[in-house]
Amino acid sequence: MPYKIPVSVLVVIHTPALEVLLIERARHPGYWQSVTGSMEKGEALRDTAQREVLEETGIDAAAGDFVAWNIINNFRITLTPERFAPGTTHNEEHVFSLCIPAPVPVQLAPEEHIAYRWLPFREAAIECFSWSNRDAILMLPLRQVTST
């Protein structure tokens, strides 16, 4: 398996009422998060966001529905360092959001996630294991981002 590129997306999926989708990691039960995933070679970040949302939730949104926040988080890779090239210690994460009209059932990728839930944004932020995910969720009311 080729090494992952240390550039990823974080996609906060939410409703206009600020209900946020969280998914639980299969390899780390109890670790709740928004959709995340690494960019593939030659892929644009918006395309990465669209692909990861479809793969991890089954939500088939148009590329234009994803809002780039122009926020980049840099953090130390701690959960899966073996998936990156030797010597790679940090990841660059680009934040996106996707607003959908209402909570929907999702189709999880069982090798990646084992459960999902929709929570009000403050509750969702508390549940996130990642500081960058928590911070992005807490910014939702300020952004009032929708896919209209």
**Major sheet, described briefly?**
4 strands, mixed
Output the CATH homologous superfamily: Nucleoside Triphosphate Pyrophosphohydrolase
Per the CATH scheme, the topology name is Nucleoside Triphosphate Pyrophosphohydrolase
- CA radius of gyration is 14 Å
Question: Helical content, roughly?
Answer: 10-25%
The number of helical runs is 3
Count of individual domains: 1
Number of E-type strands: 7
Indicate the CATH architecture.
Alpha-Beta Complex
Biggest sheet strand line-up: 4-1-6-5
Backbone structural class: alpha+beta
Distance between the termini: 39 Å
CATH class identity = Alpha Beta
What oligomeric state do these chains adopt?
A: single chain
Descriptive overview:
There is one protein chain. The chain has a single domain (7-143), classed as Alpha-Beta Complex (Nucleoside Triphosphate Pyrophosphohydrolase), CATH 3.90.79.10. It has 148 residues and is of the alpha+beta class. The protein has helices spanning 45-57, 121-127, 131-143, and strands spanning 7-14, 19-25, 32-33, 35-38, 66-76, 90-99, 113-120. The strands form two sheets. A four-stranded mixed beta sheet has the order 4-1-6-5, sandwiched between helices. It has a three-stranded antiparallel beta sheet with strand order 3-2-7. The chain starts with 6 loop residues before the first strand and ends in a 5-residue tail after the last helix.
